Description:
Blueprint: E1 19-22, H1 24-38, H2 54-62, E2 67-70, H3 73-81, E3 86-89, H4 96-107, E4 112-117, H5 120-133, E5 137-143, H6 156-167, E6 171-178, H7 188-211, E7 218-221, H8 227-230, E8 236-238, H9 248-253, E9 263-274, E10 277-280, E11 296-298, E12 304-309, E13 314-318, E14 329-334, H10 337-341, E15 346-351, E16 354-360
Parallel strand pairs: 1-15, 2-3, 3-4, 4-5, 5-6, 6-7, 7-8
Antiparallel strand pairs: 1-9, 9-10, 9-14, 10-13, 11-14, 12-13, 15-16
Amino acid sequence: MKRTNWYALNDTHDVITPALLVYPDWILHNIRTMIEMAGGAERLRPHIKTHKTAEIIEMQLDQGVKKFKCATIAEAELLAMCNAPDILLAMQPVGTNIQRFFELMSKYPESKFSALVDTPDILDALSDMAKSQKVVVSLWMDINCGMNRTGILPDENAVTLYRRMDADPNVDAKGLHAYDGHIRNTEVTLRKEVCDASFATVTDLKKELESTGTQVAGIVAGGSPTFPFHARRNGVEASPGTTLLWDAGYGGQFPEMEFLPAAVLLTRVISRPSKKTICLDLGHKHLASEMPFPRVDFLNAENCTQKGQSEEHFVLECENTKDYAVGDVFYAVPVHICPTVAKYTNLEVVSEGRIIDSWEVAARNQRISI
């Protein structure tokens, strides 16, 4: 892993492309960096939405991480299958997912499950289900701290909702959850200033609740861009996700973070249709395409501009296409790794230039067994 071309395979002949390669030494570095930044594994609740993979969960468990966050019932079940002790479904369950959430609690009693809530109707539905099954459901109140995607605004309605949670005998009110994924300022000082201002709305709500006798047990906060700031707060569980694999997007935006790109795409040249154009087998089906170009950072190609992408193809305009033959391999770090991982059934595990294993992306679909 200390080679100049750390990402390169010694032999690519039998590798089906596109392939997503992962490097366990660098994943371990990222896990240990997270723990060091947080001041201990007990202060972490990392998200598994990026990797969705049992082997990476197990690497974190081996390093002392016991609390996790996830986005789907399948991810929650995968965590339970790995014997994760504490699992937060960071999505308010609705529809049939309410029943599925309680099925998780029943099937995996050794794991402690919790979920988010931000509206009275869902609180009532969860409470009623808990009562009917003679269990207590653990819930965090999701706060809209500025992203305007999910959560309840931290106003008098939030005070009322949390007090209802706290007073409900069918509910264990765990505390407040606040995701601030909208904060992505590249300059560290400004990013911290915006993060602190956003988080102040959460702490103010906590103080208001506690001033009238309603205790707030804990807070789960942040994602990867704001992880360095939340990691230093007392009484807060920081919940980064992309930090496990990292990507070119966050690596470029936040160069001060010492995480390493632990996932690399391997793709081949399949055509040279014109004097300045080459085409790779890296289409929408294998690379996240929700952002503008560039969508990858090529590690072994220069003077090429990313021009187009379709279902199976990725088109580059290069100054000298003669430098690249049909069949040549390119290595590329995705700009956005999270949705890219979900496009692959397996991650190809690389050590010392060889593929040594294949890890199933076990929670990429909606369902495992529940």
